[in-house]
Amino acid sequence: MADFAVTVVGDAYVEQFRPVKWKRDSVYRDGVSVYRSDEETDTFRTESPGGAAFLAHLLGGAAVPVQAMLPIRDEWTDKLQVGAPVTLVPLAAPVLLNRIESFYARIESGWELQLRVDESHKVPTPQMAAPKESAVLIIDDYGRGAISAELLAAAAQTRPQTVIVTAQFRNKTLYREILDSAVTAVLICSERQALLWSGVPNPPARFAAGPLRDHRDLIELILTNMIVDFPSVRHIIINKGGLSLASLYLKRSTVAGEADVVTVYQSDRVWSDFAGEGTPGADTYYLAAFVRALIAGDEVRTALIEAVSAVADYSSEGVSLRDGYFGRHEALPEIRHAGSAVPNFLLAIDPNRRIMEPDGSAFLRRAQLDGKLPQEESALADYYAPEHAERQIAALLRALSAYGEKNNKRPFNVLLEADPGSGKSFFAQCLARHLDREALRRVGVAGHHPLIEANLSLAGDSPHIEHALHDLYEAVRDHRALGRMPVVLLDEFDTLLATEKTSGKHEPDEMDRLFAQMLAPLWDGVFAVNGRHHRLGGFILLIAVSNEAFSARLKEGKGKANDFASRLDVQLNLRPQREPTKDEKMKANVRVAVGMLRKHFGDGVTRVHLAVLDALGRADFRGRNRSIDQLIMMSLRPNSGVFTLDNLPDKDLWSNLVANVDVEGARRQYGGSFVEI
Q: Full-prediction pTM beyond 0.85?
């Protein structure tokens, strides 16, 4: 028979803390920030047993024979002897003043989360004396550096049947051997640690907002990765904090080919005012209740219900300083077996499932964790441009803002160069909306920058183009008479460009004549109708071209091309300067898709499934902006405000727009996960 029921191995030190004031009152001692205590609350200074020591104390108080392997200073060994004898295997803990943590300090109105400074420690050396055998071994890892391969080797000498690890992601390789050796192995971690198993760098501390069922695919990814790291572990628990504690419990099947089932156990008791951070000591109280139930002979599922119910009682009563400890409860309640934790089936994990990491998936995995798309630096909302063009667009917006504040008598002329289908018209729409918002913010005027569009390719030859320009100028004049400053898009301006030259010398052609017609409007803001001159005043003119030969013509400067080019204020090149990477293509396609969803559905779409963005993000479009625009235009309006793969048009309609769309692969990857847009 084992000498002890439980061995607790931890790195949460026995330490001293005190209530303190805010950070602005800090002073420095040996280069380390130390916070001044408030004289009125300084009398509440006390010693904290630390998480693992608190755990040993709680189990000892419940008449469970415990030995504790803890980093502790010799003069503090008696801090665990408060009606709960615990056999110590002390680990040396040299002192360093360098750690600042959170703490609930007592103030007149109650308890308030403030800051504390307490004593931190170097990595301790395990004691030479070997620990005795025990039935259950708990590795309570707080990530403070004490858990090492040497310490776990010493702990393995307890020859436990059951091993419970409260895991830190960064130490996952340390746990494998001792978990593999156990008859029953249980892995417990917080949601902060669990999210590290998503594979996304620097994940958030908590799951995104929303019920757990909205995160099923992310939870499946995390648990699948945990199974890969710990193939011998049959019980994995993720504790999710919030308004009430929820334990996600994965019980792995022992039958080959049978699915692993994930169940959520959640208390119907709401946490106290400390719900945002969790009550101090609550996680340790949870673990103590869980272990005590296992020792009493309960199976893992029943012990988990007991733990969730017990911690709900503990958390609902808040915290107090009593007899030098930070928990209101100095002893665990009696085992009830019928707690307030309610189990709900969440998902089943196919044992044959393998996580496929598609190209560019890190971008969407980040979105899955955050519940929203990563914030991208974009000068113009909803419009995606190559990196070099983003800087130029930002500069253009600043120049247009300055232009709008003056009483200009000539237009602001922009040559817009972009590939066919890259969204020149959409750029003009986004620009007009941006300028409208700026005008509304600056002078309180809405609709100050209406968009006027004219496509010269529809006019055909030179005489018809001249008529089209006159109609456009009159529309500008009407808006100017109302005090507005329109944004004018002249699309396909290069439509008259000759495709080949018949001789080496330059001869005037239709393009040259168009250049000549534009000189007075571009510089003087004046146009002529029936021999009469009309002044337009200030407006913003976007001249859009797609043919690279047009740029070459301007550079040559022959005929009227040089005069035309000299009147352009900005030449904005939206063409990519290099082949985009797969990740850049993913981001570009996703940004355009979200912009088109807003364009076509407005407030009718508030969420979009990540499977949609993954499928479109990895696809190859003939003309990205134009093709995605067409695709979303043909899509069904969602009834619930959530755009899914089922809202996309029939795949038979896609062939002329897009290639390499893996709808089913995207569905397998992300299921029902969504982001807000």
A: no
